[in-house]
């Protein structure tokens, strides 16, 4: 392939090692040596033979056997090796990936090196691809690409096809701009990936034909004025119908043939962004942590309810994170820039709570030394979160109901109502219906506040989230106590955490870690670091060793007490684990007996 | 492929995630240990030469993903192995089950090649969870089965040396 060919020069920009494969032993290099090419193989880049790289790589030699089979069986498509690193060859631990590509019977071998940040994105991308596959989307897209490429290829020269095929694989949408800022070429990928009609681009000023807003154009332009080495890629979003639509990254390169011309690469980031959001969304949602079905369901409902401007009743046991749910609702609602005021209604007398919520006039009661605006007014335009609403005194309930119905409050000691625009979110650990039946809660207020309802699952019903939560709380407690050496939770401790009933729910788990970190010495949190009610000897004491009971009974009793967990039983009996196991086999205690 | 004359042997590191495969390779190849945990991504290839009775051998060590991702590892990565190191974390007995699965997988794709069984992290004796009865089945066909530590180096040289000499005999 001649150096004067513009397309092959484009390939050089990719920093990939690209071969056209004639046969198992015949390769033609299609690109110049990438900058990452190991110096151990070439002190002089111009004379090095990149085929040496393939021969010296243990990984590639193995991959090529697979590739050979693939090439023989397919006329179209690709086989990817997955990431690998080969220190002895590369001189460092960088990651490489090989692709065996076949396009209309033409075979290519492409070797790419990944930036470290790419490596962390890779698993995410992998997931994204799997998702796509699952939805059968990939198939559709590929068909589309093939059809389009097919017609393109038919009318081009072979040499150009090759480059195009490789370009297409590299998934890079390419736009070439001449010295007058006019688009001279847009690769098929621009069409396939961004659904931008390439014909509409060619001949126009890039700043006008590319669907970017002005500010983004000028950021790209800014990069064009910099020397090639100093440039960074620009994150922009393509617009559709005046709205941001796709998040992409624009990379600015000089045209190797003519410095006054520019080549833009448009890289789709949406897939990554979406996926990152999705993945993160699975584990975290706002400040809530958990990937259990119960929490997923909750996240879904929060998203549905948040934008609808109605009161919400959040129900859940103590310590389940009701306030976090309220905060999430706030941030996802139209009131997000406005106030979020939280009030705990428990343990307050009628008059104090009333004056706190609705405000008072100076002198309205003893101690009211000045005019005071209530939380309702403070939350104007935003959200008022009433925690433990089940504890609200009846008189306050009546005033609250009026405030909700009329959208106005009257400060204590005043008669003039003040308009308020507040969305009320209420939370309780009690069964309000029961309170209504007992006459402790107004039924009309209940109907008013539970227009929408959310139920938080207790921790014991989502034990699968305990490891995740534990990691998070360990991290938080570590930062607070500055004991950075504490890195792990020992497996025995995790066992205990997984089995404990957690009456205090997530809050109790969090404080367990605060406690443990204070007591922990060393890298692992041990059972002895846990609060006594969690890690301490179980309430029912095992009969001491000196008891007349046989050792066999004693061991069985211990096992029963810890539900078959041998490590814990050993601890309980004060034996080392290996002694314990030996005694088990000496006494002929079977594993069925252990877990009985 | 490489310099003619030196015998090359491919050795796979097999075991659940975090049992210490990467650390064992590092200890063997560089003599170092680091506490930092970096999940191995994809395949990591290292090499070290080893002498067996005056014969020089180049061991090419293939360190692959942890077990969790093992479905994604091509069986072909295991092909062509002259032997493997099966690694268990002695402080987590559940890694025995993973080792068993991998052992079966290895037998399928490599055939009957020699392997050494390492019960790793022996320096953490206070949290030790396994004893020899628990892995008798895995040990019985191994050319060597012993506790090891990538941290202190215990058992590491020995395991590779024994495996190398067994691979030569085959
Ligand atoms: N104490 C101790 N820690 C080890 C030993 N081997 C590995 N580790 C640690 O265990 C973790 C996982 O090790 P790694 O080699 O990455 O495991 P791999 O997933 O099997 O490759 C790391 O934090 C290592 O530092 C050992 O022999 N003793
Ligand atoms: Mg590893």
Give an overview of the whole structure.
The complex is a heterodimer of chains A (596) and B (170). With 596 residues, chain A is of the alpha+beta class. Chain A has five domains: 7-114, 2-Layer Sandwich (Beta-Lactamase); 171-273, PAS domain (Beta-Lactamase, 2-Layer Sandwich), CATH 3.30.450; 284-455, 3-Layer(aba) Sandwich (Rossmann fold), CATH 3.40.50.300; 459-535, Helicase, Ruva Protein, domain 3 (Orthogonal Bundle); 548-594, Arc Repressor Mutant, subunit A (Orthogonal Bundle), CATH 1.10.10. In chain A, the strands form seven sheets. Chain A has a five-stranded antiparallel β-sheet with strand order 2-1-5-4-3. Chain A has a five-stranded antiparallel β-sheet with strand order 7-6-10-9-8. Chain B is an alpha/beta fold. Chain B has one domain (7-169): Rossmann fold. Chain B contains four helices and six strands. Classes of the chains: A alpha+beta (596), B alpha/beta (170). Chain A binds chain B through residues 55-56, 58-59, 61-62, 65-66, 82-88, 93, 95, 97, 119, 122-123, 490-492, 524, 567, 577-578, 581-582, 585, and chain B through 1-2, 10, 41-47, 60, 72-74, 76-77, 79-80, 91-92, 127-129, 131, 133-134. The complex binds guanosine-5'-diphosphate and magnesium ion.
